[in-house]
């Protein structure tokens, strides 16, 4: 696959059912969120553990726990959109939900081309409205605190 843009990508919120594999995530019922302005970013960062030892002249560093961070999702506020309503409802709970990001990058040819998909679990930590000026769209910024791995299913021709 070559490089791609985020245009025509999809973002969905699933249920609170615990999923740990791509197959389990794929079985969930995801509701697409409309009017997304920015999907944000997510990815792994390792904690760096250090040790200083008297008999050595250099600091020793080891990778520790991994953290997939938080995804900041900016959405045009539309209380009639089922995906938006699901995010608002999720923010009011303490539960982790399943999420799905589907890129628009499937191959042009193949028996049954499929887009790349990223699955993860996260809590909806916040929902902040941005009202702006007269010519600004009213948006809501959702902070999704990712808990656990991000599972990537690569685009394929079949």
Task: Walk me through the structure.
Strands 1, 2, 3, 6, 7, 8, 9 and 10 form an eight-stranded antiparallel β-sheet that branches. Strands 4-5 form a two-stranded antiparallel ribbon. The chain has a single domain (10-153), classed as Factor Xa Inhibitor (Irregular), CATH 4.10.410. The longest helix has 10 residues, at 82-91. It is mainly beta. Helices cover 9% and strands 39% of the residues. The chain has two helices and ten strands, in the order E-H-E-E-E-E-E-H-E-E-E-E. It is globular, with a radius of gyration of 19 Å. The relative contact order is 0.25. The protein has helices at 22-26, 82-91; strands at residues 10-13, 31-32, 36-38, 45-51, 60-67, 70-76, 97-102, 117-130, 139-146, 151-153.
Uncertain spans, ≥5 residues at pLDDT below 50? none
Q: What is the general shape? A: globular
The whole-angstrom Rg is 19 Å
H/E order of the elements?
Answer: EHEEEEEHEEEE
Number of helices: 2
Q: Count the strands?
A: 10
Number of domains: 1
| Strand residue content | 35-45%
Q: If classified by CATH, what would the architecture be? A: Irregular
* CATH-assigned fold name: Factor Xa Inhibitor
Summarize the structure.
With 158 residues, the chain is mostly beta strands. It contains two helices and ten strands.
Features:
158 residues, mainly beta, Factor Xa Inhibitor, eight-stranded antiparallel beta sheet, two-stranded antiparallel ribbon, 10 strands
């Amino acid at each position: 696959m070559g490089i791609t843009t985020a245009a025509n990508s999809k973002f969905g919120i699933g249920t609170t059912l615990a999923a740990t594999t791509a197959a389990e995530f794929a079985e969930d019922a995801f509701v697409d969120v409309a009017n997304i302005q920015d999907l944000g970013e997510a990815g792994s960062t390792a904690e760096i553990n250090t040790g200083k030892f008297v008999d050595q002249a250099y600091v020793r560093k080891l990778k520790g726990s991994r953290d997939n961070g938080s995804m900041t999702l900016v959405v045009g506020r539309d209380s009639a959109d089922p995906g938006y309503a699901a995010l608002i409802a999720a923010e009011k709970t303490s539960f982790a939900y399943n999420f799905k990001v589907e890129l628009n990058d499937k191959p042009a040819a193949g028996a049954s081309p499929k887009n790349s998909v990223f699955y993860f679990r996260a809590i909806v930590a916040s929902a902040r409205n941005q009202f702006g000026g007269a010519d600004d769209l009213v948006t809501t910024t959702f902070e999704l605190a990712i808990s656990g791995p991000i599972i990537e299913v690569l685009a394929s021709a079949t």
